[in-house]
Structures are given as C-alpha cells and as structure tokens.
Fold:
Amino acid sequence: MTQLPTTTDKKLGLVIDLDTCVGCHACVISCKEWNTAGYGTALSDQDPYGAEPSGSFLNRIHTFEIVPDGGEVIGSAGEARVVHFPKSCLHCEDAPCVTVCPTGASYKRAADGIVLVDEDMCIGCGLCAWSCAYGAREMDLAEGVMKKCTLCVDRIYNEDLEEIDRVPSCVRTCPAGARHYGDLGDPSSDVSVLVRERGGFDLMPEQGNKPVNKYLPPRERSALGSAASVPAVQEDTSDATGLLAWIDRALSGGSAKGAS
Amino acid sequence: MGNHDVQLSGPVGEKHQTTCYMCACRCGINVYLRPDANGDKKVRYIEGNRDHPINKGVLCAKGSAGIMQHYSPARLKAPMKRVGPRGSGAFKEISWEEALQTAVDWLEPLKADPKRLAFFTGRDQSQSLTSWWAQQFGTPNYAAHGGFCSVNMAAAGIYTIGGAFWEFGSPDWDRTKLFLMFGVAEDHDSNPLKIGIGKLKNSGGRFVSVNPVRTGYSAVADNWLGIKPGTDGLLILSLIHELFRTRKIDIDYLVRYSNAPFLVIDAPGTAQHGLFARDKNGVELVWDSKTKKAVPHTKKGIVPNLTQEVKLARGVKAKPVLRLMADMYSDAAYSPESIAPQTGIDADTIRGLAAEIARVAFEEEITIEQPWTDMKGERHERFIGRPVSMHAMRGISAHSNGFQTCRALHVLQVLIGSVDCPGGFRYKPPYPKPFTAHPKPHAYRPDGAENGPLAGPHLGYPHGPQDLQLDKNGEPLRIDKAYSWDAPMSAHGLMHMVIANAHAGDPFKIDTLFMYMANMAWNSSMNTRGTIEMLTDKDESGDYKIPRIIYSDAYDSEMVSYADLILPDTTYLERHDCISLLDRPISEPEAMCDAIRWPVVEPERDVRGFQSVILDLGARLGLPGMVNEDGSAKYADYADYMVNHQRKPGIGPLAGWRGEKGDKAGRGEPNPDQLKRYKENGSFSITHLPDEALFFKHANSAYQDFAVSMGFFDAPQPVTFQLYSEVLQKFRLAAQGYGEAQPPERLRQRMEECFGPLPHWYAPFEGSELGEQVDSDFPYHALTQRPMAMYHSWGSQNAWLRQIHTKNPLYVPRSICDEKGLQEGDWAWVSSYHGKIKVQIAPMDAVNDHTMWTWNAIGKRRGAWTLDKDAPEATKGFLLNHLINELLPPKGDDHRWANSDPITGQAAWYDLRVNIEKADAGGDVSEPVIDAQKKSQATPDQLRYGLGWTQ
Structure:
C-alpha cells in the first residue's frame, strides 16, 4: 500500500468547460503526440491498420446524448442534446489508485498534487485502474505498465520551453478554449475564480475521491420562442401597404434604422 | 512515498514553422524534429503557431495527428504504371523519367484538340497554378472540387455581396452578440470557428444553430433548430417576412449600399421586363424624391424613393427593388405559421428568432469612434455595427435549391445592415470584390483558334446568357457542362459530372482524364459503384471507355487503383506550396495574409511535389509561359515559380516581401530572398489594413485605395449589394423566349421556376421529381456530417485518428427506430430510388425526426489506404454515396439531368430521400461489398512511435 501525502503545497489540475467543448478531439491527439515521446514509455497502438485498432491514450472524449426532463440548466425539457465529455486523470486528493498500489509505483506528489506512475516500479498488475472510479488509467499493452495523465509534468516545469508554453499540451492546443490549467489550491488563481463564478463541480463526488480537476456546467439558456420580445406593430400587416408607408416615413425622416 | 526521479526539462527538438494541410483550414504549425536512433531527423511534435493569423497557436486533432499522416504506410513510394486491370491495384514501379515521358506521349497529341484532356484537381490548394496550366494547355475542361462542395455558398456570396463566408469573410468574433450558423462543414475554417465560438461563449453572446443534426458545434449552441433538410431557404425567407412585418430593416444602410432603390422595369411580355432601368451610359436609375426624376444612382445628394411605382420616358413603368421585396415577402405564404409545417420549426421559435435578430441588430448597436470616408466622399465620424453574424457552408449549399437559399441568407444580412460592420460579418482581403470585377468564364481561344492557350481563366462569373460557354450549336464546350444552360452560373465547375459525362460521351468523348487529389472512385463521387463501373467499362473493341487516366496523390487512396499512370505526390511536410491571394486566401478581416509550405523534412521515397511535376510536364510539352525562348524549362520547380512567376507585372503568387529589397507588399518585383523571409516569419506574411479601412470595405475609400495599392484590382471596385439579381433575371428572360441566346425547350420551364431575381424557395429536385409517392416510398432524408477529427477519406490511414472513427453507424431518429423495430447495433437496409445499402444503426434523439445521418467518408474499400481487408472501415463502415445518383430520375426524354443546382451545378448531395427497414439477422457486414484491392504495403502489428525519445 502506498501513502498519500496529507496535504500538497499546490493542487495543480484542469478545469474543463462543458459549455464550450465541441468534441473535436484536439486535446486527445495533442496529448497522444506529446506523451508518446515524453514521460515514461511510448503510448503504443495495437493492430494500428487492422481489424481491431486500439491504443493507450491518456485523455479521451466521450460523447453521449441526454434528453432533459426540464428544469435543468442544460436545456429545455425534451430538447435532446449531445454532450462532449473529455476525461483524463483528475489527480484526486484521496486517490485510491495510489493507496491501492502494491509497489509504490503510483504516487501523488506533495509539491503539486500530480498523480504519477513511476514506471520502473510498476508491475502492471492493474489494481490502480480497477480502483479508479473514472476509468482514467490505461495499461500500455506493449510495455505492460500503467499509463496516465501526467498533467504534462515534462512541459509545465520544462525550462527549455518558453514560459507561455509551460502548460499541458491539451490546454495549449484546445481550439475552443475549453480547457484551463492552474492551481486549484490557490483560491485567487484564475482557475479557482472560474470554478467559483461558473459553478464548477466535482465529477461523481459521491465516490469521495476529492478530484482536483473540475468541470464547468453548461451556461443557462433561454428559448427563442418567447413571443413577448416580438415587437408589436399597430398598423395592418396583412400586406405590404403599411410597410411601404413606414418606409416612406423613415426616408422622409432622414434615417431609419429599424426603429418603428 | 519513495524517491521518484522525473526529468522535467529538455528541448523538444529543432523547431521549423510551416503550414498545416491536414484539412483545408491552413493553420500555422511548429514542427519539431529530433534525431532517431539512426540519427535521422524525425517529427517529434507538431503544435500550433501562436503568431499565426488563422489558428493563433491552437491546433485540431487532425493537425496534431500530422505525425501519423506523414509516416503513413499508405504513402506512395514511386511512380507507377498499371499492370493489372483497372481497380485491381496491380502496378509496376517505374522511374520518373519513364513516367513523365509516358505522360508527354499521351498529352502531346492532345494539344491539337485540347478538349480531349480533362484536368480536374480535387482538394487542390494550388488552383492558381493548376488552372493556369490547364489554360496554357488549352483544355476547357478544368476545375477543382468546388462544384461538389460548396459552390452555391461561394457563388451566391459573390453575386450578392461580393464576398462570402470562410475564405472570403468571417463573423466579427470579438464583437458579435448573436451568431447564427446554418448547417456546417466542420473542416472549413475549423479552428477559427472553434476559437470564435469560445470567444462568443465568454462574451455572453447567443449562438443559434440551424442544422438537422445536433453534433459538434451545434452541441454547444444556445438554441438548436433541427430543421428538415432543404427547407433552410423557407426559414430565412420567413425571418425576412418577420423583419418586414415588424419594420426592422436598416433603410439608411439599404439606400447607401444596396440596389434597394434601383428601378426595375415593369413591362411583362417584353424583353425588358425585370431589368434595371438605365441611363444612356448604362448606369442604373433611381427615382429622386426631391426632383421627381429618374437619375443615376451614383448622383450625389439625392433622396431615392423606395416604394412607388414610377413612369419613365415613353411611359415605361418601373418599381424600386425594395418595393418588389416588400410586396413579395409580406405575403402570408412566408409567415412563420405557413412555413412551420414544411421546416419542422414551430412558428413561435421563428418569430422569436426574428425578434432576437432585430433586437440585437438595432438595440445593441456598436459604435467604434473611427472616422472614415465613403466612396461618394462623405465623411463618417464612426463605424456603426449591428452585431449579428452568420455562417453557413455545405449544409445549405448542397441542395438543388441551394443557390437561392444562400442568396436569401446574404440578403437577410444586408437587410439588417450587418455586412462588414462591427459585430457583423466581415470581409477578408482581397474581398469584397463585386462579381463584375471577377473574370468571366473562358472555354474558348482568341480569334477562334482551334488550339493553344484559352483566352482567359476557366472559371468566372457570367453576367448573362451572352457569357455562356457554348459551341455554335448551343452545346456545352466543357465536359462537365459548366456554363451551359444546364448550369449557367457554375462558378466552380461540376467535377462530380466529369467521369459520368466522359463515360457517356455527353457532350463529347475525351482521351485522357488527369486528376489530382480527388478520390473520385470512392467518397468524392455520387453513385460510387456506378462510377467504378464507368472507370472500368470497356467499349466493343475491349478498350476502356475513358481511355487513359493519370492520377496524382500522396497516398494509396481508392482512386489510385483505377488509374493507369500514377505520379506520387509528397506529404505536406515535404513540399513547397503557396497559399496565395490569387487562389484561396487566408487573410483575416483586419489584414492581408498569405503563407507557404516548405520541405521541413526531405522525402526518403521517390516522390515529387505535384506542382513541380506539372511545371516540368508543362515545360516538356512546351506550354507557353513554362518554357524559355530556347525551349528550356522556365521554372526549376514550384519554389522557383512561387518566387518568380508574375501573373501581371508586379503581381505574383506571394504578396509578402516583394521588390528587390523585399520591402514591398502586394505589388513589387520578384524578390530572390522571398521564401527565406517567409520562413523567418513563420511561413506567412501579414499586412495590416489602415484603421479607417477596417469596416464597410465595400464602400470605404481608404480600403479601396489599400486594395488598389496591394494589387487586388487596378481601380477601386466598391460593391453595391445585389438584393435583386439582374443576372438571374436575364437568364429567366432567355427561358421566356427573349434575346438571341435561349435555352433548349426542355430547360425553359425549370429555368423560369428557379431563376427568380429575388431569393425564393422551391422544393429540392429529388423529392419533387419522385412525385407524390416520395412520401410513402422514401419518406425520410439522409445526409452526412463532417467528423471534426477527419478530413474526407484521409484520416482512416492515420493510426491515431482512425481510433476515433473506426466505423460509422447510421444515426436514426428514435421515433423511426420505434416504428421500425430498430435497436442499437441492428442492421438495416436503407434504400433510395437509386440504390440500397445495408448498414448498422444507432438510435438518436438530437436529430430532426425525418432525418437520418452518418459521418462522411469513413467507409473504405477493402485493402485501400493499406488498411487490412477486414478493417471496420470496410466491413462496418459505409458510404451514403451509393444511394445518391449523379443524375435525377429519368424524365423519359433521353436527356441526362444532373442531380445538381440548376443555377450553379452544385452537387445536390443533401436532397437524398430514403426509406429504412430492419435487415434479417446474419451477415453482419455493410453492403454493397466491393471487391478488395491489393493492399500495397505490409503494415506493422504494433506502433510505439517515439519510444526512442522517451525517458
């Protein structure tokens, strides 16, 4: 069994905006290309050109459909919508994947809270993946070691990168700006402010893992069909006659910019 | 916790900046190279270039997967000639010398009768070169893929506002407050759209999506209108009806910038009916309310009447355009209640959307305190913006009523005054450019010569019947029948008709089909199986009906196996390219931009960039402009051409760092250091507009001066928005029997019904041609959507991208599933009047209840793209294309009627009508099964890319 640190100096993590994610998979592939040649062994692909292609990815997008019953912020009752849900390791404060690890390979860093796998110590038993409520760990079938999001630990502290680029690859590449990175342990950080302002939430809080990563819910929407906002027109609108008179008045008044 | 060493720092690799080509978006990329175990430099990482105007640092899934594309096992390795029957994939590798000599041997004799060559170039990003090459060869048969993509959107935009979406313009993302998106093509402007939607979300703006399917961008829309396919035009016209009814149009803007006051002659039964009244200089007339006289619209100080019928000289009656619009669109036929049943959108929602458009446009007006001067010399103290913006591409374009629908959308933008204003739609230089400033089409030679270069570029914008490209018998001059009565305003050609027409010998036979980067044997053709049969069909003497096919591609696509001679192209990281203002620009609204690609890695295969190859071929064929006086090749390669070719003095493919010292933009002498300067600047150039030129470019004197100084045109070309299209009316008059050039009898009624000068709606052809039984036999619509992680058929060879979309189910509305007893994973037969396919289904709620859909171009032929024969793309993936005919249902008149928009020839993919029935159990493989082609290369069982670099 491996010990978790009692506290961490920082809580580095991601804030993912479900109101903005369009499900383009940019983060998925950028993660793959950075991490296949970065921390730990390569992210292998099996049967890459064959009948059953599969591979290890540290970040995936799940797409599902919901039909709200109503009263929910995500949309009108009965109005189906598609949700794109990016998922990677949430770097939990109470990470069962760490405490379950028999060799000490899985660990949570006291300095920044990042959960990592020391691949030299990993025996590929898979207990950590089994214990993860989120399914965020993937065994690399070529090497037989457990792979997971490192929060691009080899980018965020990398002094050979320009400072602006010292962010996870998925955050740097996200075209819609749906992914944010920072210290969620610092209440004044941009990500903490975002979580407060937008009602950021924990994924499956009932599991008690205290995930560091947060998700932002869809913003409130209003329907178009509210007839109240339709401008009232006094005159007869059954044909163009009234409209022509209005245009004439508008022209003789010097200007008309859509005001009746 | 033990000690865990983590190496935190380390350089990524050598950084090189070039331009992406994983789709048509053309983002700036940083490509990092690192030596592998053998010391060979390999691609370590690709990221977006933060300084680049298009993507500003971000990159999509395709862009990041460039590594797997660049090292794809499907890359062609050397020139090849076919040794087995077409389609078998049996080839022999040959030398470049033999390949080029073979091509010369085939093409040289055709110079005497150039129309026997058809040269079509697919998803080509070098159309200014390829079109010039075809022009110099003298064949009238040239186009790229626009005709089967989104020509309706592009042509309607140019004809209406002198610009269009995507490459021509974009929403003002920093200021817009209401964004309407109709349909979508997710690889067009893909990263800018995502960046823009992100900005809109943060600024609190509203995003309304009109699309039968709620995926991708629509998934995050504030409001989703799941419209019935092909009825967008009705919805837009109903919005116009509502704006008229509630008096929410920008009269001042219309008077200043549109043809709303132009007088239209009202003389039914004459050749003048519906044309503009003009003065003796040909200038359109308006009625001046002050002097009660008809005066040229260009006259200063007038107050034009917009509503009254007036009498001109000799008693001719005329009405202003806006009067005609008021009469037409006030009709109850366009009311929300009337169109709700046809569109599937309820009347309250339509009214609410119109009200929201009006509220944002007129109550949330934006002003930017920047003085500017218009083309009449009037000074304005500020830019006034109506922050409603719109975007559309293939969704509304790929219908037989698409041109009129796209025009309706632009007319809507003009009516609320939101074209090129703060918060609205903004042009990207070199646009705006009125259709009158574009070339006209050319399929002929000067002085009636029988061969030699054409008199001008192939593709252009006709002004009326006199500009059609017909022979003396009125028959089409082009193999695709572009610019004939079948498709008079076909500004991008009809690539989807080339193989079918060449096979049928209608309007004539050809000898050689030469294609680049167009997978016509598969996903890029309607009627895929029929197209394969045409490519392999033989005449009585045993020769192929299309005698010779030359094809260039970088990868082993389905089309490769059907060609006779293969000219292997490079990957995008191995080539020179220019993303040119002469072609499909990448400018931003506030700056003129262009870009290059250059070989950041050298090919280790015997392949050559196609552009260099056709310059070489052109020189070997002695084509004018490609040889020196002594007959030697004028350009060493494409890079040499990019720098030294001049289309006219001072104007070349690249606009940046021109002039001998490299200090000129737009116009200037060739600069031998130009490519070096591009590379130093991240492979793009950017020239900012002056502040006073940023908006109202169509009528902004500072912008017009800038445009002239940059060489977009030689004199100012302000745009008058064409609410009323006189060009369409001229064609309609011809159909009614007026004028020297008139359509054949069979086309008259259709032209009269479809060529209305004001935007209107008619039912898509496939449904209406099938008649009353369509609602019982084929009650549903079926269409495709673009997956954001794929570009056409390219992505399936990519080991990473194919794990995202390995197969494509048909998504079927749950109500239909319930009715037909279908459940997730069931197999079903989907039929159209043309064909039948067997597919696996998945129920879905977020879709129009009459519409089923699937992802575009996932299905593959067995063995193609070096995928295993049992790859899911081939066994469970499928193409909807099999259900879509390139022709309309036969009318019994022996004529072949293209399944296309009657105005532009745009392929009407989305008109498809279908039915669906559950399939019997067993044989869980998608059908039709097309036999396998030979897999051209063994592929590995496992990839561990980057292993040597890991820590």
